[in-house]
């Protein structure tokens, strides 16, 4: 979970900076910086969970092949 939180902080900073530079508006930069990274952080968290399951199944399949 720490990885997800640090990713969120980094993403927030990048999203705010880019949006502010493009629009010159602190409010718009702040809104985009809050919404977009929040959605991406949730997507990243679930993406990691899915990949951990895939890797676990692959490892389990390899172990079964070794036993046979």
Which key terms come to mind for this protein?
68 residues, 94% helix, DUF2061 domain-containing protein, DUF2061_membrane
Question: Can you characterise this structure?
Answer:
- With 68 residues, the protein is an all-alpha fold.
- The chain has one domain (2-67).
- It has 2 helices and no strands.
- It has helices at 2-23, 26-67.
- Helix 1 (2-23) runs antiparallel to helix 2.
- The longest helix is centred in the C-terminal third of the chain and has 42 residues, at 26-67.
- The protein starts with a helix and ends with a helix.
- Pfam families: DUF2061.
- This is DUF2061 domain-containing protein.
- Residues 1-52 form the DUF2061 domain.
- InterPro entries: DUF2061_membrane (IPR018638).
Residues in β-strands, percent: under 5%
Please summarize the sheet with the most strands.
none
Termini separation comes to 37 Å
The low-confidence runs, each spanning 5 or more residues with pLDDT under 50, are: none
Structural class: mainly alpha
| H/E element sequence | HH
Number of domains: 1
Helicity level, as a percent range? over 70%
Strand count: 0
Radius of gyration: 19 Å
- Give the overall shape, derived from the CA principal axes: rod-shaped
| Number of helices, counting only DSSP H or I runs of 4 residues or more | 2
Mean pLDDT: 89
Protein name: DUF2061 domain-containing protein
Domain DUF2061: 1-52
InterPro entries: DUF2061_membrane
Organism: Bowmanella yangjiangensis
């Amino acid at each position: 979970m720490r990885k997800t939180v640090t990713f969120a902080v980094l993403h927030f900073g990048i999203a705010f900076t880019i949006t502010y530079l493009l629009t010159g508006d602190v409010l718009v930069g702040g809104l985009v910086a809050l919404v977009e990274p929040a959605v991406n952080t949730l997507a990243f968290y679930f993406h990691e969970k899915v990949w951990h399951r895939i890797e676990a199944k692959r490892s389990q399949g390899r172990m079964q092949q070794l036993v046979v």
